[in-house]
Automatic annotation (TrEMBL):
Residues 71-150 form the GST N-terminal domain. GO terms for cellular component: cytoplasm. Residues 155-289 form the GST C-terminal domain. This is GST N-terminal domain-containing protein. It comes from the Eukaryota. It comes from Smittium simulii. Coiled coil: none annotated. Pfam families: GST_C_5 (PF16865), GST_N_2 (PF13409).
Length: 289
Protein backbone atom coordinates (compact mmCIF):
# COMPACT_ATOMS: atom_id res chain seq x y z
CA UNK A 1 0.00 0.00 0.00
CA UNK A 2 2.88 2.40 0.60
CA UNK A 3 4.12 4.23 -2.51
CA UNK A 4 7.41 5.10 -0.76
CA UNK A 5 8.10 1.45 0.02
CA UNK A 6 7.06 0.64 -3.54
CA UNK A 7 10.02 2.72 -4.79
CA UNK A 8 12.34 0.36 -2.91
CA UNK A 9 10.44 -2.78 -3.96
CA UNK A 10 10.62 -1.77 -7.61
CA UNK A 11 14.32 -0.78 -7.41
CA UNK A 12 15.17 -4.16 -5.86
CA UNK A 13 13.36 -5.98 -8.66
CA UNK A 14 14.88 -3.85 -11.43
CA UNK A 15 18.32 -4.43 -9.90
CA UNK A 16 17.64 -8.15 -9.59
CA UNK A 17 18.89 -7.81 -6.00
CA UNK A 18 18.33 -10.90 -3.86
CA UNK A 19 16.46 -9.94 -0.71
CA UNK A 20 14.11 -11.17 1.98
CA UNK A 21 10.79 -9.37 2.61
CA UNK A 22 9.15 -8.68 5.97
CA UNK A 23 5.59 -7.47 5.41
CA UNK A 24 4.49 -4.86 7.94
CA UNK A 25 0.85 -4.24 8.84
CA UNK A 26 0.86 -0.48 9.49
CA UNK A 27 -2.56 -0.61 11.18
CA UNK A 28 -1.21 -3.11 13.62
CA UNK A 29 2.50 -2.42 13.87
CA UNK A 30 4.75 -5.11 15.33
CA UNK A 31 6.24 -4.28 18.72
CA UNK A 32 9.77 -4.36 17.31
CA UNK A 33 9.14 -1.77 14.56
CA UNK A 34 11.23 0.96 16.23
CA UNK A 35 14.06 -1.27 17.27
CA UNK A 36 16.08 -1.29 14.08
CA UNK A 37 19.75 -0.92 14.79
CA UNK A 38 20.73 0.88 11.64
CA UNK A 39 22.75 3.93 12.47
CA UNK A 40 21.33 5.89 9.59
CA UNK A 41 17.61 5.76 10.12
CA UNK A 42 15.53 8.65 8.85
CA UNK A 43 15.50 11.37 11.47
CA UNK A 44 12.97 13.85 10.30
CA UNK A 45 11.03 14.27 7.17
CA UNK A 46 12.02 17.58 5.74
CA UNK A 47 9.22 20.13 5.97
CA UNK A 48 10.00 21.86 2.72
CA UNK A 49 9.74 18.88 0.46
CA UNK A 50 7.17 20.82 -1.48
CA UNK A 51 6.34 19.58 -4.89
CA UNK A 52 8.39 21.67 -7.24
CA UNK A 53 6.01 23.59 -9.46
CA UNK A 54 6.43 22.69 -13.05
CA UNK A 55 5.12 25.73 -14.78
CA UNK A 56 6.09 24.77 -18.27
CA UNK A 57 3.31 22.29 -19.08
CA UNK A 58 1.51 23.30 -22.25
CA UNK A 59 3.33 26.59 -22.48
CA UNK A 60 5.69 27.30 -25.30
CA UNK A 61 8.62 29.31 -24.07
CA UNK A 62 10.25 31.49 -26.66
CA UNK A 63 13.97 31.45 -26.03
CA UNK A 64 15.71 34.78 -26.13
CA UNK A 65 19.41 34.89 -26.80
CA UNK A 66 21.40 34.96 -23.61
CA UNK A 67 25.10 35.17 -22.72
CA UNK A 68 27.16 32.00 -22.39
CA UNK A 69 30.61 30.70 -23.06
CA UNK A 70 31.03 28.51 -26.13
CA UNK A 71 34.00 26.63 -24.73
CA UNK A 72 33.23 26.38 -21.00
CA UNK A 73 30.27 25.55 -18.78
CA UNK A 74 28.43 28.74 -17.85
CA UNK A 75 27.35 29.18 -14.26
CA UNK A 76 24.56 31.71 -13.64
CA UNK A 77 25.24 32.86 -10.11
CA UNK A 78 24.25 35.38 -7.48
CA UNK A 79 26.73 35.54 -4.64
CA UNK A 80 24.05 36.24 -2.03
CA UNK A 81 22.17 33.01 -2.80
CA UNK A 82 22.94 29.98 -0.58
CA UNK A 83 21.48 27.64 -3.22
CA UNK A 84 23.77 29.03 -5.92
CA UNK A 85 26.64 28.86 -3.42
CA UNK A 86 26.26 25.07 -3.38
CA UNK A 87 27.06 25.06 -7.08
CA UNK A 88 29.88 27.64 -6.80
CA UNK A 89 31.50 25.57 -4.06
CA UNK A 90 31.10 22.26 -5.96
CA UNK A 91 32.70 23.76 -9.07
CA UNK A 92 35.71 24.94 -7.05
CA UNK A 93 36.08 21.64 -5.17
CA UNK A 94 35.93 19.76 -8.48
CA UNK A 95 38.40 22.20 -10.03
CA UNK A 96 35.97 22.44 -12.95
CA UNK A 97 36.79 25.16 -15.43
CA UNK A 98 33.76 27.37 -15.94
CA UNK A 99 32.57 30.80 -16.91
CA UNK A 100 30.40 32.84 -14.50
CA UNK A 101 27.52 35.14 -15.40
CA UNK A 102 26.54 37.16 -12.34
CA UNK A 103 22.81 37.85 -12.07
CA UNK A 104 21.39 40.82 -10.21
CA UNK A 105 18.16 39.36 -8.82
CA UNK A 106 16.79 42.82 -8.03
CA UNK A 107 17.18 43.79 -11.64
CA UNK A 108 16.95 40.56 -13.62
CA UNK A 109 18.17 40.50 -17.20
CA UNK A 110 15.41 40.14 -19.81
CA UNK A 111 16.84 36.79 -20.94
CA UNK A 112 16.76 35.14 -17.48
CA UNK A 113 13.80 32.86 -18.33
CA UNK A 114 15.71 31.43 -21.28
CA UNK A 115 18.15 30.09 -18.73
CA UNK A 116 15.79 29.21 -15.85
CA UNK A 117 12.01 28.79 -16.35
CA UNK A 118 11.31 30.48 -13.01
CA UNK A 119 13.92 33.20 -13.46
CA UNK A 120 16.06 31.90 -10.61
CA UNK A 121 19.67 31.08 -9.86
CA UNK A 122 21.54 28.79 -9.90
CA UNK A 123 21.62 27.42 -13.43
CA UNK A 124 24.46 25.70 -15.23
CA UNK A 125 24.71 25.64 -19.02
CA UNK A 126 26.74 22.80 -20.46
CA UNK A 127 28.72 23.38 -23.63
CA UNK A 128 26.26 21.18 -25.58
CA UNK A 129 23.48 23.67 -24.79
CA UNK A 130 21.72 21.68 -22.05
CA UNK A 131 20.87 23.79 -19.03
CA UNK A 132 20.69 22.33 -15.53
CA UNK A 133 18.60 23.87 -12.74
CA UNK A 134 18.09 23.12 -9.01
CA UNK A 135 21.13 23.33 -6.79
CA UNK A 136 21.18 19.77 -5.39
CA UNK A 137 20.92 17.97 -8.76
CA UNK A 138 23.46 20.41 -10.24
CA UNK A 139 25.92 19.71 -7.43
CA UNK A 140 25.33 15.98 -7.99
CA UNK A 141 26.00 16.42 -11.69
CA UNK A 142 29.32 18.14 -10.94
CA UNK A 143 30.26 15.40 -8.46
CA UNK A 144 29.48 12.69 -11.03
CA UNK A 145 31.21 14.52 -13.86
CA UNK A 146 34.37 15.01 -11.78
CA UNK A 147 34.65 11.78 -9.75
CA UNK A 148 38.25 12.59 -8.77
CA UNK A 149 36.79 15.36 -6.56
CA UNK A 150 35.33 12.53 -4.38
CA UNK A 151 32.35 14.81 -3.68
CA UNK A 152 30.15 11.79 -4.30
CA UNK A 153 31.53 8.67 -2.61
CA UNK A 154 32.05 5.58 -4.73
CA UNK A 155 30.78 3.20 -2.05
CA UNK A 156 27.01 2.64 -2.22
CA UNK A 157 26.46 2.82 1.57
CA UNK A 158 28.53 6.00 1.88
CA UNK A 159 26.53 7.48 -0.99
CA UNK A 160 23.33 6.54 0.83
CA UNK A 161 24.57 8.25 4.02
CA UNK A 162 25.39 11.42 2.08
CA UNK A 163 22.00 11.44 0.36
CA UNK A 164 20.10 10.78 3.58
CA UNK A 165 22.02 13.56 5.34
CA UNK A 166 21.02 15.98 2.56
CA UNK A 167 17.40 14.78 2.71
CA UNK A 168 17.26 15.17 6.47
CA UNK A 169 18.98 18.50 6.82
CA UNK A 170 19.24 20.20 3.39
CA UNK A 171 16.06 22.20 3.75
CA UNK A 172 15.29 21.72 7.45
CA UNK A 173 18.14 24.06 8.40
CA UNK A 174 16.92 27.03 6.39
CA UNK A 175 13.25 26.46 7.29
CA UNK A 176 13.95 26.46 11.02
CA UNK A 177 16.46 29.32 10.71
CA UNK A 178 13.85 31.55 9.03
CA UNK A 179 11.17 30.53 11.54
CA UNK A 180 13.54 31.68 14.27
CA UNK A 181 14.37 34.92 12.44
CA UNK A 182 10.69 35.74 11.96
CA UNK A 183 9.65 34.95 15.55
CA UNK A 184 7.05 37.58 16.47
CA UNK A 185 7.72 37.55 20.22
CA UNK A 186 10.13 36.33 22.88
CA UNK A 187 8.11 33.23 23.69
CA UNK A 188 8.06 32.01 20.08
CA UNK A 189 11.69 32.97 19.62
CA UNK A 190 12.63 30.74 22.53
CA UNK A 191 10.48 27.84 21.22
CA UNK A 192 11.94 28.25 17.72
CA UNK A 193 15.46 28.37 19.10
CA UNK A 194 14.76 25.08 20.90
CA UNK A 195 13.79 23.53 17.55
CA UNK A 196 16.99 24.80 15.93
CA UNK A 197 19.14 23.43 18.75
CA UNK A 198 17.32 20.08 18.57
CA UNK A 199 18.22 19.94 14.89
CA UNK A 200 21.86 20.81 15.63
CA UNK A 201 21.91 17.95 18.13
CA UNK A 202 20.50 15.62 15.44
CA UNK A 203 23.30 16.74 13.11
CA UNK A 204 25.88 16.25 15.86
CA UNK A 205 24.56 12.73 16.55
CA UNK A 206 24.49 11.80 12.87
CA UNK A 207 28.05 13.03 12.37
CA UNK A 208 29.27 11.10 15.41
CA UNK A 209 27.55 7.91 14.29
CA UNK A 210 29.04 8.20 10.84
CA UNK A 211 32.56 9.15 11.84
CA UNK A 212 33.70 9.77 15.39
CA UNK A 213 36.97 11.37 14.34
CA UNK A 214 35.59 13.58 11.61
CA UNK A 215 35.86 16.28 10.65
CA UNK A 216 33.39 15.65 7.81
CA UNK A 217 30.36 13.32 7.66
CA UNK A 218 32.46 10.63 6.02
CA UNK A 219 35.63 11.37 7.96
CA UNK A 220 38.49 13.01 6.15
CA UNK A 221 36.76 13.60 2.82
CA UNK A 222 34.46 16.50 2.11
CA UNK A 223 31.38 15.42 0.15
CA UNK A 224 28.07 16.71 -1.12
CA UNK A 225 26.79 16.26 2.45
CA UNK A 226 28.74 19.38 3.47
CA UNK A 227 28.25 21.28 0.19
CA UNK A 228 24.46 20.99 0.40
CA UNK A 229 24.05 21.96 4.05
CA UNK A 230 26.89 24.21 5.19
CA UNK A 231 25.85 27.23 3.08
CA UNK A 232 22.65 27.27 5.13
CA UNK A 233 24.52 26.80 8.42
CA UNK A 234 26.39 29.93 7.38
CA UNK A 235 23.05 31.78 7.06
CA UNK A 236 22.00 30.36 10.44
CA UNK A 237 25.15 31.91 11.96
CA UNK A 238 24.19 35.27 10.48
CA UNK A 239 20.68 34.94 11.93
CA UNK A 240 22.10 34.04 15.38
CA UNK A 241 24.28 37.16 15.23
CA UNK A 242 21.33 39.34 14.30
CA UNK A 243 19.32 37.92 17.21
CA UNK A 244 22.32 38.17 19.55
CA UNK A 245 22.50 34.43 20.18
CA UNK A 246 26.00 33.03 20.63
CA UNK A 247 26.41 30.32 17.98
CA UNK A 248 29.31 28.66 19.79
CA UNK A 249 27.67 28.48 23.19
CA UNK A 250 25.71 25.22 23.03
CA UNK A 251 26.72 22.20 25.06
CA UNK A 252 27.43 18.77 23.60
CA UNK A 253 27.77 19.98 20.03
CA UNK A 254 31.53 19.42 19.73
CA UNK A 255 31.34 17.19 16.69
CA UNK A 256 28.98 19.67 15.00
CA UNK A 257 31.33 22.61 15.69
CA UNK A 258 34.29 20.59 14.39
CA UNK A 259 32.32 19.87 11.20
CA UNK A 260 31.36 23.52 10.69
CA UNK A 261 34.90 24.80 11.34
CA UNK A 262 36.53 22.29 8.99
CA UNK A 263 34.05 22.99 6.20
CA UNK A 264 34.05 26.75 6.52
CA UNK A 265 37.81 27.04 6.75
CA UNK A 266 38.30 25.47 3.32
CA UNK A 267 39.69 28.05 0.88
CA UNK A 268 37.11 26.89 -1.68
CA UNK A 269 34.24 27.74 0.68
CA UNK A 270 35.78 31.10 1.59
CA UNK A 271 35.96 32.03 -2.09
CA UNK A 272 32.20 31.56 -2.44
CA UNK A 273 30.95 33.71 0.41
CA UNK A 274 29.09 36.98 -0.11
CA UNK A 275 30.06 40.09 1.89
CA UNK A 276 28.87 39.65 5.49
CA UNK A 277 27.18 43.06 5.67
CA UNK A 278 25.06 42.33 2.60
CA UNK A 279 23.96 38.93 3.88
CA UNK A 280 23.23 40.35 7.31
CA UNK A 281 21.15 43.30 6.06
CA UNK A 282 19.21 40.99 3.72
CA UNK A 283 18.21 38.82 6.68
CA UNK A 284 17.58 41.77 9.01
CA UNK A 285 14.57 42.83 6.91
CA UNK A 286 12.69 39.69 8.05
CA UNK A 287 12.88 40.52 11.77
CA UNK A 288 9.37 41.62 12.84
CA UNK A 289 9.34 45.29 13.88
N1 LIG B 1 15.21 25.16 -5.26
C1 LIG B 1 16.08 26.09 -5.93
C2 LIG B 1 16.00 27.42 -5.20
C3 LIG B 1 16.72 28.54 -5.94
C4 LIG B 1 16.30 29.89 -5.41
O1 LIG B 1 15.31 30.02 -4.65
N2 LIG B 1 17.04 30.93 -5.82
C5 LIG B 1 16.67 32.28 -5.44
C6 LIG B 1 17.88 33.08 -4.93
S1 LIG B 1 18.52 32.39 -3.42
C7 LIG B 1 16.21 33.03 -6.66
O2 LIG B 1 16.76 32.90 -7.72
N3 LIG B 1 15.20 33.89 -6.50
C8 LIG B 1 14.73 34.73 -7.54
C9 LIG B 1 13.26 34.72 -7.66
O3 LIG B 1 12.60 33.94 -6.97
O4 LIG B 1 12.74 35.51 -8.43
C10 LIG B 1 17.50 25.51 -5.95
O5 LIG B 1 17.81 24.70 -5.08
O6 LIG B 1 18.27 25.84 -6.86
Amino acid sequence: MCPFAQRVAWSLLEADAEHHVELIDLKNKPTWIKSNSFIFCHIHSSPTHKKHKRSLNNITVKKMSYPYSKSLMTFYNTKMCPFAQRVAWSLLEADAEHHVELIDLKNKPTWIKSVHPEGKVPALRLTDGNILIESIPIARYIADKYPESKLSPADAFDKYKVNLFIDNFGSRIITLAFQLLKSPNQEEKSANLDKVVEMLRDINKTLLESSEAGPYLLGETLTLAEINTITFIDRLKVIFNLLEIDFDSFKDLDRFYQWVDASMSRPTFKKTIAPYEEVSSFHAQFIPK
